[in-house]
Amino acid sequence: MDIARIFLDIDGPLAMKNEDVLVRLYAQYLHLDIPERELADVHSVHDFQSLPAVKAFKASAGTAKYEFLLALLVFLPEHLAQADVTENAQKGVQQLVQYQPELAYCTARRGNTESWTLDVQEATRTWLGNQGFPHPQDVLFCEDPCAKLKLIAGLLVGQPEPILLIDDLKDQLIHDFYTLTHHEQALLSQHFILGAYGAQASHDGPFCVIPLPDWADVDTFLEMLSGSKEVIHHGRQERQRREEGRGYVGVH
């Protein structure tokens, strides 16, 4: 099958947390009184969370606020600039760009202020370029996984040709699919392919899902992609079955 465009998620498929950097940023931004000699022996978020000062902060702030802050601070530009590269990612992406040069990135990275988000965007593009990924300036920033589906559906309105997204949030994307309009669902079921990074096996869904367990498996993935026309048809049938079960009328 000819793919018109490829989009790549960044966190997970391409970038991993640099936990050595992150724990020090946590200590700094949460204003934790942790002696440097104690922090010097901490090299993972798991060990960081076991420190007495961190446990005390969690008890004071409450679990919900504590977990929100840890998740938010992952997107500090200082951390994103030093993120680790997922194993074999550069080689795998080079194989994809040879398959289809129209390749870009689609991520839900953002800060909680406009200026922070702009810094996140700059750090992301700089990191992609520094790590040798192709087209580092071609990044689409979305609020969440559902917004990725809406964006791709919008592109399909003007150009109804197959679009591939490599992303590691398969279950979330399938869940979010059913929150879209019927027209968006119809477009995605006919023209959207999810390369499910980290998935070990094929998965029935409302759109075509092809597993990509690891970047070392790109050759097998591309072979499956070449035969994905039949899978897309299956995905469309799956969506129609679900709609019939809910009493919906399909949009064709």
Automatic annotation (TrEMBL):
Residues 233-252 are annotated as: Disordered. Residues 233-246 have a biased composition (Basic and acidic residues). This is Haloacid dehalogenase.
